[in-house]
Write a structure and sequence with these properties.
Layout lengths: L3 H7 L4 H21 L4 E8 H6 L2 H24 L3 E5 L7 H13 L7 E8 L1 H23 L3 H12 L2 H5 L12 E4 L18 E4 L9 H12 L14 H5 L4 H12 L19
Parallel strand pairs: 1-3, 2-3, 4-5
Helix pairs in contact: 1-2, 2-4, 2-9, 4-5, 6-7
Amino acid sequence: MDGNGRWAGKRSLRRFLGHQQGAESVQYVVETASRINLPWLTLYAFSLENNLRRPKSEVSFLMKLLKSYLVGNVKRMNDNNVRMAYIGRTHDLPQEVQDTMQWAMESTARNTGTTLTLALNYGARSEIVDAVRSILTDLTTEAHTRGCSVDDLLGAGALEALDESTISRKLYTAHMPDPDLVIRTSGEQRISNFLLWQIAYSEIYVTDRLWPDFNGLHLLEAIAAYQRRERRFGGLGETFTDEDLNNLEPAEQVAAEIKDHLIPKQEAKPETKSDPVLTRR
């Protein structure tokens, strides 16, 4: 959801108006997601860095806008069978905002369509830190229960049992599948600390369109682009068969053919002649 401020700046408007227009885009995108039965939609609405580095007046406005959005759109969420959820350090948000978030989540909990997850006060590195803290807390608790030390547990196999699934289960998104597609608006060529663990094999779609100009049609365009891609997850594509392997030239033959291109020829050193006058014997 990037580009609200730039959208306002291009129109000589205050940044606040860009955020308001961005909130309108959220509903267009959510309703389109609902109509095509998209099961999961996660929007990076407010980062941990936004909370720490933006002016207090802007952060305060964003909190009021979030509260207003939730109050004003819960009915539309229910009409579209959309369920609300959140990820991030939401416990650090103002209490009245937390209360409204809880109310919206409970009000839409019975819906069975698209799950709209708002990433609020979210940072992927912080999420991983929180996951590791939770794992260490569990180890400490288990050691206390068993009457032993954490070192004893690690030596008894707890260290070897730690794997990717252990960390995944402790992430904010433990109840969610990893994203298939990441859409980056405003032409930015970076991830911006968003779901770093989860998007290891996600497809990335970048559009120059600013978020306030992004709507349901543009969501469909991004999904269409995604559907034309071949996802390999580190393996071979579906169009690659054993016949392709049989047709490969032997490695020795290929090496012989390209050897001269890889190994620079030794330049002949010019022969030096001794000057009998300068040579010391």
